[in-house]
Amino acid sequence: MKILICGKGGSGKSTVSSLLAKSMASRGLNVLVVDTDESNYGLHRQLGMELPNDFMNFFGGKKEMFGKRRAASGKEEVKKKGREPVNLFDKRWGFDDLPEEYLTTKNGIKLLAIGKIHDFGEGCACPMGALAKNLLNNLDVTDEEVVIIDTDAGVEHFGRGVERGCDAILGVVDPSYESLKLAGKIDGMTKDLGKKIYFVLNKVDDDNRAMMLESLDHLNVVGAIPANRGISGAGLAGEELNLNLPEIEKLTSTILGYD
Ligand SMILES: Nc1ncnc2c1ncn2[C@@H]1O[C@H](COP(=O)(O)OP(=O)(O)OP(=O)(O)O)[C@@H](O)[C@H]1O
Ligand SMILES: [Mg+2]
Predict the structure, then answer these.
(1) What is the DSSP secondary structure assignment for residue 181, as one 8-state letter?
(2) Which ligand is closest in space to the CA of residue 247?
(3) Could you tell me the distance, in angstroms and rounded to a whole number, from the CA of residue 226 to the centre of ligand 1?
(4) Is the CB of 9 inside a 6 Å radius of any atom of ligand 1?
(5) Is the Cβ atom of 179 under 6 angstroms away from ligand 1?
(6) What is the DSSP letter of 108?
(7) How far is CA 128 from CA 27, 188, 211, 246, in A?
(8) What are phi and psi of 29, to 5 degrees?
(9) Counting atoms of ligand 1 from 1, which one is nearest the CA of 9?
(10) Interatomic CA distance for residues 204 and 75, integer angstroms
(11) Which domain holds residue 8?
């Protein structure tokens, strides 16, 4: 299963990605976490892992990838497909094909980072988005493997169609008007894709939970993670998340279809 985690900036996408990854790995699954956020540096710390080399460098880096796309855009078949990027994979991949030098591994979790913006003026993140989409479209997973994709904030990746290669989409919703509105938008954008769509509330307390549920009553809300001092403390210190939350266990079971 390939699960894409999305939502508003700061809603808790990376937190939920990390906690889900740990929960799934503790159940004996081989987990690949794909960091598709070109800007942020929190995810690997929440996992307690080193940030791997940019996977984009496996394909020659940003310039090389731009070159390939530019060359391809002159071809008739690519013109017909509009802005569809060139396929960088010459065959379908499994976990074993992922190059070791672009992974860090710990306790049953592999982490792969598509690429970060490193330098002033280096250009946009389009090649990263194209590579993320390519990878998800070309990666096969077995029943013992799970891919968790942590995305950048907002809906740019939906515009790009990154979700096409996923099986399930999990929207993280924090207690803000923006986040509630975005959840509705994500639901509308994805409901015809034929994927499982879930939403989880995050940072909830007794005051905001009912209002959030009421506002999202037409969506598939499958859980609510409380505001938790352990999470915010680790977030401030840039430390690994070592928490066993019943709400995350329940979410894991729901997504894996155990309940
Ligand atoms: N349930 C929670 N309780 C308390 N703090 C939380 C909770 N979930 C997330 N946080 C904190 O909120 C902040 C944002 O979380 P996180 O980085 O996971 O969000 P994000 O959606 O990935 O953000 P970005 O859009 O910047 O990638 C972090 O400081 C994190 O520690
Ligand atoms: Mg994040």
Answers:
(1) H
(2) 1
(3) 12
(4) yes
(5) no
(6) T
(7) 31, 25, 37, 35
(8) -85, 150
(9) 25
(10) 51
(11) 2-256
For residues 147 and 56, give the distance between their C-alpha atoms in angstroms, rounded to a whole number.
Answer: 18
Q: Return the H-helix or E-strand segment holding 236.
A: helix 229-237
Domain count, the chain: 1
**Cβ of residue 14 lying under 6 Å from some atom of ligand 1:** yes
Centroid of ligand 2 to alpha carbon of 43 (angstroms): 6
Two structure tokens written together for 116: 């970060």
Of 8, 14, 16, which is closest to residue 36 (Cα–Cα)? 14
How far apart, in whole angstroms, are the C-alpha atoms of residue 215 and residue 204? 14
pLDDT digits (tens), the chain, 259 positions: 999 999 999 999 999 999 999 999 999 999 999 999 888 889 999 999 999 999 999 998 877 776 766 666 555 554 555 455 567 888 999 999 999 999 999 999 999 999 978 888 887 888 888 899 999 999 999 999 999 999 988 888 877 788 888 999 999 999 999 999 999 999 998 888 889 999 999 999 999 999 999 999 999 999 999 999 999 999 999 999 999 999 999 999 999 997 6
CATH number at residue 103: 3.40.50.300
C-alpha 59/C-alpha 89 separation (Å) is 10
Pocket residue to mutate for ligand 1, from 22, 39, 199, 231, most atoms within 8 A of Cβ: 231
Of 214, 129, 223, 206, the closest CA to residue 171 belongs to 223
Residue 47 alpha carbon to ligand 1 centre in Å? 13
